[in-house]
Design goal:
Keywords: Membrane, Transmembrane, Transmembrane helix. This protein has 330 residues and is mainly α. The protein has a single domain, classed as Ammonium transporter fold (Orthogonal Bundle), CATH 1.10.3430.10. The protein contains 11 helices and no strands.
């Protein structure tokens, strides 16, 4: 279950998850104390909702692992991690603090995304030779639509009047150089899938993943010993995307440069056996497509539907384009 926290970034590593959570809570407490070392505001400026968000994710994750425990015997794998990067956190960020919101987000996460992901992987991805990540992120999108639509009809789910923007904490900070900000933004991209978006969380997660790899190279990264190349591809695609689309970060803005970090870039590495040409091309194509596609799709998202739906849909589109392009080129 602990490893599920970092499986959205393509390495199921308990040490990476410890780093992620330690960094996330460090960023949260630094934000609460108004420290100048807080970095990018945790969870897009929804700091007060962060503990409730983590609570909803943990509850949903525990229940999912218990509910689908019978499908995990004899070394079998199931995408139990999908609740970490989808409905529970999105519901709390939309509707605020409170036990009713926490419980609703957790339950909706359990009943929507994991079953859909398992269904799509078994009946769409596997028969057609499509990377599993496409089915996973498509399930997140469909589950997000179902959950957000359901919340609109639940009488206890009310949007707070003082809600800050869902995104808007990735801005270029004039107090730091462009290069320093770029490094911080790349690190933050590594924790965006978990709705944290902090360089503390992303940086310590990478440290934990590397420590886990040094202890046992076959453990992180699905036993393929490709973690160094996966990390390199992720850093490269994030850096290219941040440089390409940095204008959308200015003036308090935000954009989904993390899309290829958790989808097309690691897929290019794993699907093509760590090929350097696939790594570089996959990172570049993913960076060029991920954020603009997500931004375009976000314009179609109605009110009270979290924009993560657009982001994960962009992951499916970007991954398919990258995978098919590399199959044709290589």
């Amino acid at each position: 279950m602990l490893g599920d926290f970092t499986e959205p970034t393509s390495y199921k590593s308990p040490l990476a998850s410890v780093g992620l959570l330690v960094g996330a809570f460090a960023a949260y407490f630094l934000w609460r104390s108004s420290s100048r070392f807080a970095g990018t505001p945790v969870s897009y400026g929804f700091g007060a909702r962060f503990p409730w968000m983590i609570g909803a994710v943990v509850l949903s994750l525990v229940a999912t692992n218990l509910l689908f425990r019978g499908l995990l015997v004899d070394g079998k794998w199931q995408p139990t991690f999908v609740v970490v990067a989808s409905v529970p956190a999105a519901v709390v960020l939309l509707y605020g603090r409170g036990w009713a919101v926490l419980g609703t987000g957790a339950v909706l996460g359990i009943v929507t995304v994991p079953p859909l992901a398992m269904l799509l992987i078994a009946n769409f991805c596997a028969p057609n030779g499509i990377p599993n990540v496409v089915g996973i992120v498509s399930a997140m999108a469909l589950g997000g639509v179902i959950a957000c639509a359901t919340c609109r009809f639940l009488p206890w789910m009310r949007v707070p009047d003082d809600a800050p923007p869902v995104h808007g904490a990735g801005r270029v900070d004039a107090r730091h150089s462009e290069a320093a900000w770029t490094v911080r933004r790349v690190l933050a991209d590594f924790s965006e899938a978990q709705f944290i978006g902090s360089e503390w969380a992303g940086g310590l997660m990478i440290v934990g993943a590397c420590a886990g790899f040094l202890i046992d190279p076959s453990f992180a990264g699905y036993g393929l010993e490709l973690l160094p190349r996966i990390l390199f591809a992720q850093v490269l695609t994030s850096a290219i995307g941040v440089v390409l689309w940095r204008q959308w970060y200015r003036g308090g803005g935000w954009t989904a440069t993390y899309v290829p970090v958790v989808s097309s870039a690691p897929t290019a590495v794993v699907a093509f056996g760590g090929s350097w040409s696939a790594l570089v091309l996959g990172a570049a194509i993913g960076a060029a497509l991920g954020a603009p596609v997500a931004r375009l799709l976000a314009k179609l998202i109605p009110p009270l539907f979290h924009p993560f739906i657009a982001n994960v849909t962009s992951m499916a589109v970007t991954t398919l384009v990258v995978y098919w392009s590399l199959m044709f080129i290589l």
